């Protein structure tokens, strides 16, 4: 059970990585931007690859009527996410420690994992909803009003995961180091349940 | 796709023409069988970068050109000593002080010899210095911004030609006078030249942090013509060598009268001795007037200060400071080998090259073996210092550069060729024609301890039939040679701009990552800058109107202005709010009697306009900045002088 607890502690502690490294990144490439423009999405805000990337993305997006990228104050998520992530990470570590004293704690490992997965899915739904709004809720007086083949206004929503061509840009959206650590951490907590379960089964 | 097809068509046509040309006449200077190989040597694929930067003097354009090697592609023309309507240099309020001199505003210059700053005898790529010949000045170009950062005028000088070469730690950038003049200037008979005129050799100290230039001292030499110069390096560091001609001190028909002496001199100047002398309070402060112009990249503004005195040194009062090395036949180029041992005098009226030995020179000085003196300056005995001569090498030797394998390359103007010879044995190894009548040549790192052994290029004075004919007035031609083998190989022919005299070249890696992309708006301390559209406004002060304007894709703020009157003096202070690489905006006003402004991201530029006609007059952006560039325009209403229309301005209001 010591092994399961250690895995659980390491797994949930990896969530603290989100306070150091970005969760996600979206990168835009175009002929005029050979080295790309990009943003790191942290749990507490969006930061440009370089000092001026956010302004330059906003500057380009104004042609098609997109809103400017939200600052920390403009999105409640950037305040709530750090609390949720920090809370869950701390909770995971505490539950992990319980495992040293109580063999049945492995069930709580699964409980933590399920809760974190639900929160994660909610987070993704929320993120996707924001991106949909960002990419489709356009200024009616936009300079360029583009339509798709069916005549509907073109959506500029970046992909949640993967690559997508939008006009002259290719948008890449992938997890960053913080997101990768989150994934590994959650996988470890999942594994810790089975390690704990196996330990308990071998004991009885 | 059409463009692409035409592009391929052009390339195909070009290669056809090349092969025809080669079959028709032997002007390629290369073996036919090697042509494909040579094409590959200079081919830099689209999107790839060249290996070297070459800073080629723009000669009488007054500017400095940036080229790439081996492709021979031109990347930029940097305005230095001349007004440049392309971007408003010398027209905008911020940059006109750069062209101020003791003679007032001078719109033009004749730039000559670029030289790159050094540390321990190796090019460090901080700055390029270049001299102006006509109204003697030295400029410093910053290699982060590739813009002229400073210009200092050189007093008591005329024909600032033996310039602007740097010592091996950039302690000094040195400027010598080609024409001797009365010092100080005065009303006197030209016939009284002999003994009365002086030749000033000016040592300009360089601040190692900022690059800032300040004249440390001026050596007032006899009234010869000081033609070219180079610093000692390595063992000869601390010395500077200047070729002289007209030691006859003729003041008329110099082509005959200055060619009579069998030998002129190379003046060897021990600047360390003089530096010490100056430190101990030596020299005389002479009243003088010369401009010192400095550009600040935070205020985006140049200031011009008039200096009032200069420290002059009488060489006879500093023992051990100057010696004359007799050198045959009006030597032109004065070149020092990478190890600092050999000083080459290119006797332009001779067929031979004379090489002096620094070691022998030191020995002769130590033994006080002199062969008389001139104006109190000891003359060394030719045989005591002579290392060797390259005999019958060609006609009219002008300049020599060195490679990294102990070879030297000398240009011969009259016989129109570059001759490769060996240091120490003085034997000729190879010769290749140039097209035509070569002046200077450049090897990257030429004036340093570490020249490159890859490329050499010759800059010619005569072009004739090298390119498609374009009427009587031609750009000059340059040829690039591969010098990595025993024999030189001509691999590229490319046109240059103005009359390139010298060029300085450097490995691209040393500087390319330092090149700036934008100016930070939050570091802009221009006194008329605006940091956002909220700050844009129009202010009237009597008949002076200041328009604080901004640009961002794709509009001016404000773009409608009323209340301007005939007789006003209108200042457009335009700040480019962009912070994205390569998004300049331009500004042009109809009927304005000055050039456009080209404003880099984060920069502020000011243009003055005198409205003379009543009406509504447009202005627009001159740089195709975005898809909506054509929409980037505005109007100014100009009312009669006695009108009572209130000043007003707006953006996006109906």
UniProtKB/TrEMBL annotation, chain A:
The keyword Membrane applies. The keyword Transmembrane applies. Keywords: Membrane, Transmembrane, Transmembrane helix. It comes from the Bacteria. The chain crosses the membrane at residues 7-24, 80-101, 108-131, 177-196. This is Uncharacterized protein.
TrEMBL record, chain B:
InterPro entries: Copper_CuA (IPR001505), Cupredoxin (IPR008972), N2O_reductase_N (IPR011045), Nitrous_oxide_Rdtase_Sec-dep (IPR026468), Nos_propeller (IPR041114), NosZ/Cyto_c_oxidase_sub2 (IPR051403), WD40/YVTN_repeat-like_dom_sf (IPR015943). Signal peptide: none annotated. Keywords: Copper, Metal-binding. It is found in: Cell envelope. It comes from the Bacteria. SUPFAM superfamilies: Cupredoxins (SSF49503), Nitrous oxide reductase, N-terminal domain (SSF50974). It holds the Pfam family nos_propeller. GO terms for cellular component: cell envelope. The keyword Ligase does not apply. One of its GO terms (molecular function) is copper ion binding. Its main location: other. NCBIfam families: nitrous_NosZ_Gp (TIGR04246). This is Sec-dependent nitrous-oxide reductase. It comes from Brumimicrobium oceani.
């Amino acid at each position: 059970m010591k092994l399961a607890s250690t895995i659980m502690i390491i797994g949930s502690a990896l969530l603290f990585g989100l306070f150091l490294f970005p969760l996600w990144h979206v990168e835009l490439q175009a002929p005029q931007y050979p080295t790309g423009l990009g943003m790191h999405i942290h749990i507490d805000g969006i930061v440009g690859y370089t000092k001026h990337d956010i302004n330059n993305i906003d500057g380009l997006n104004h042609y098609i009527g997109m809103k400017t990228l939200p600052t920390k104050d403009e999105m409640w998520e950037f305040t709530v996410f750090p609390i949720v992530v920090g809370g869950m990470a701390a909770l995971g570590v505490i539950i992990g420690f319980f495992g040293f004293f109580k063999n049945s704690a492995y069930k709580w490992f699964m409980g933590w994992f399920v809760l974190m997965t639900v929160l994660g899915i909610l987070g993704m739904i929320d993120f996707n909803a924001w991106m949909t709004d960002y990419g489709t809720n356009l200024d009616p007086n936009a300079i360029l009003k583009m339509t798709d083949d069916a005549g509907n206004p073109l959506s500029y929503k970046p992909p949640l995961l993967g690559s997508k061509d939008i006009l002259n840009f290719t948008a890449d959206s992938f997890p960053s180091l913080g997101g990768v650590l989150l994934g590994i951490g959650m996988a470890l907590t999942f594994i810790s349940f089975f390690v704990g379960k196996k330990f308990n089964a071998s004991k009885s | 796709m059409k463009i692409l097809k035409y592009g391929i068509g052009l390339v195909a046509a070009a290669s056809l023409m090349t092969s025809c040309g080669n079959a028709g006449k032997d002007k390629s200077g290369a073996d036919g069988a090697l042509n494909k190989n040579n094409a590959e040597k200079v081919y830099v694929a689209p999107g790839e970068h060249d290996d070297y930067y070459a800073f080629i003097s723009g000669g009488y354009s007054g500017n400095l050109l940036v080229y790439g090697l081996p492709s021979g592609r031109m990347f930029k023309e940097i305005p230095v000593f001349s007004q440049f309507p392309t971007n408003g240099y010398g027209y905008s309020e911020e940059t006109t002080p750069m062209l101020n001199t003791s003679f007032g505003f001078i719109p033009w210059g004749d730039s000559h010899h670029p030289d790159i700053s050094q540390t321990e005898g190796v090019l460090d790529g901080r700055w390029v210095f270049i001299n102006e010949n006509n109204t003697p000045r030295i400029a410093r170009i910053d290699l982060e911004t590739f813009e002229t950062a400073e210009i200092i005028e050189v007093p008591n000088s005329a024909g600032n030609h033996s310039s602007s070469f740097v010592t091996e730690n950039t302690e000094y950038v040195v400027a010598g006078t080609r024409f001797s003049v009365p010092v100080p200037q005065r009303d006197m008979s030209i016939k009284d030249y002999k003994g009365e005129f002086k030749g000033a050799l000016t040592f300009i100290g360089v601040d190692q942090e900022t690059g800032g230039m300040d004249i440390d001292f001026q050596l007032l030499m006899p009234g010869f013509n000081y033609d070219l110069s180079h610093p000692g390096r390595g063992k000869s560091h601390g010395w500077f060598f200047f070729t002289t001609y007209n030691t006859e001190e003729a003041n008329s028909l110099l082509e005959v009268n200055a060619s009579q002496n069998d030998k002129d001199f190379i003046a060897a100047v021990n600047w360390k001795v003089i530096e010490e002398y100056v430190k101990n309070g030596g020299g005389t402060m002479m009243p003088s007037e010369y401009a010192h112009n400095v550009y600040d990249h935070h205020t985006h503004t140049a200031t011009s200060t008039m200096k009032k005195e200069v420290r002059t040194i009488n060489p006879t009062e500093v023992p051990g400071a100057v010696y004359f090395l007799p050198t045959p036949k009006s030597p032109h180029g004065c070149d020092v080998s990478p190890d600092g041992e050999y000083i080459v005098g290119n006797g332009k009226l001779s067929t031979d090259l004379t090489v002096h030995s620094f070691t022998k020179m030191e020995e002769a000085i130590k033994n006080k073996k002199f062969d008389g003196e001139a104006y109190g300056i000891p003359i060394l005995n030719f045989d005591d210092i002579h290392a060797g001569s390259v005999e019958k090498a060609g006609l009219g030797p002008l300049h020599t550069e060195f490679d990294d394998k102990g070879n030297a390359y000398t240009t011969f103007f009259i016989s129109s060729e570059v001759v490769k010879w060996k240091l120490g044995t003085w034997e000729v190894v190879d010769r290749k024609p140039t097209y035509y009548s070569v002046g200077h040549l450049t090897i990257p790192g030429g004036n340093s301890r570490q020249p490159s052994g890859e490329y050499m290029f010759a800059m010619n004075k005569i072009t004739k039939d090298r390119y498609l004919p374009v009427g009587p007035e031609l750009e000059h031609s340059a040829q690039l040679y591969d010098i990595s083998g025993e024999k030189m190989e001509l691999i590229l022919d490319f046109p240059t701009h103005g009359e390139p005299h010298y060029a300085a070249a450097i490995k691209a890696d040393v500087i390319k990552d330092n090149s700036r992309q934008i100016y930070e708006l939050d570091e802009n301390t221009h006194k008329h800058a605006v940091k956002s559209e909220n700050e844009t406004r129009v202010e009237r002060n009597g008949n002076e109107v200041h328009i604080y304007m901004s640009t961002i894709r794709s509009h001016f703020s404000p773009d409608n202005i009323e209340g301007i009157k005939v007789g006003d003096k209108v200042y457009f202070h335009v700040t480019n709010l962009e912070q994205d690489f390569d998004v300049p905006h331009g500004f042009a006003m109809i009927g304005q009697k000055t050039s456009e402004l080209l404003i880099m991201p984060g920069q502020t530029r000011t243009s003055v306009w005198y409205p003379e006609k009543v009406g509504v007059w447009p202005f627009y952006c001159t740089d195709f900045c975005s898809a909506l560039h054509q929409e980037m325009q505005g109007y100014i209403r100009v009312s009669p002088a006695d009108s009572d229309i209130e000043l007003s301005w707006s953006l996006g209001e109906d």
